[in-house]
Amino acid sequence: MKKGIQVAIDGPASAGKSTVAKLVAKRFQYVYCDTGAMYRVVTLAALNQGLDLTDTVRVSRLAQAIKISFAPGEPEQRVFLDGQDVTTAIRQGRIDQNVSAVAAIPAVREEMTRQQRQIAEEGGIVMDGRDIGSTVLPNAPVKIFMVASAHERARRRYVENQEKGIATASLEELQREIELRDQKDSSRKVSPLVQAPDALRLDTTSLTIEEVVDRISAIVKKTLNELA
Ligand code: CDP
Ligand code: CDP
């Protein structure tokens, strides 16, 4: 018997993708893959090596050379760069500000997409990002496009930073940063942030995490029944 289906969750920054994806994965005992974390790791590695991020050849080579891995952890999954735990380091402001530039490099995307397809190959996976339903897993039977107002998304990120003890910009600055990143992610040439035609749009602005998890879980259950 197959291990389960592929569930693709896309949307702009802080729409609640990773929080919800993690909980849906737990409910179905699926693997969770945070593709944003993978682009963040490449960005961290490039900054650590002092690379000029406009040097797309060297950044792409680095993306192919490093080893990105995940391990289960509470309260959050751990992320590793060449065996070193970088779970907290990839959430710094300097990564937020530079990740969209790295994610716009075609060869970096090609490499991340290849690795993501490998991770999702066997099914039983919830993968979140920007281009999962549109490019990485175009045949995923469940595709969600999660949105929320920019104001609400900035508020969520602000609270999250405070809770995690991550140095945070003001609410206004965070909203500007989020809007700028959305604009960069939506306007890039390769695999931009876009709703796949067959994805279901879910506005989470006034929904609790639990409500969103329940809605997506119901869709996954319905799809599993239809496919059975
Ligand atoms: O958590 P947050 O929404 O801030 O972002 P993330 O999911 O960690 O993704 C960080 C950045 O990686 C995004 O702003 C995109 O530039 C890039 N990304 C991407 O291009 N494609 C993906 N599938 C996932 C993330
Ligand atoms: O992965 P993405 O950037 O889309 O968002 P996230 O990191 O999952 O969510 C950002 C913050 O919003 C987290 O601290 C969540 O707890 C919070 N959140 C919320 O308050 N209400 C929701 N419906 C979803 C997320």
From TrEMBL:
EC number of the protein: 2.7.4.25
Biological process (GO), any one: nucleobase-containing small molecule interconversion
Binding positions for ATP per the UniProt entry: G11, P12, A13, S14, A15, G16, K17, S18, T19
InterPro entries: Cytidylate_kin, Cytidylate_kinase_dom, P-loop_NTPase
Reactions listed under catalytic activity: dCMP + ATP = dCDP + ADP; CMP + ATP = CDP + ADP
Annotated GO CC locations: cytosol
Domain Cytidylate kinase: 7-221
GO MF term list: ATP binding; dCMP kinase activity
Coiled-coil annotated residue ranges, if any: none
Catalytic class of the enzyme: transferase
Sorted UniProt keywords: ATP-binding, Cytoplasm, Kinase, Nucleotide-binding, Transferase
SUPFAM superfamilies named in the record: P-loop containing nucleoside triphosphate hydrolases
Location within or outside the cell: Cytoplasm
Record family assignment: Belongs to the cytidylate kinase family. Type 1 subfamily.
Protein name: Cytidylate kinase
The gene coding this protein: cmk
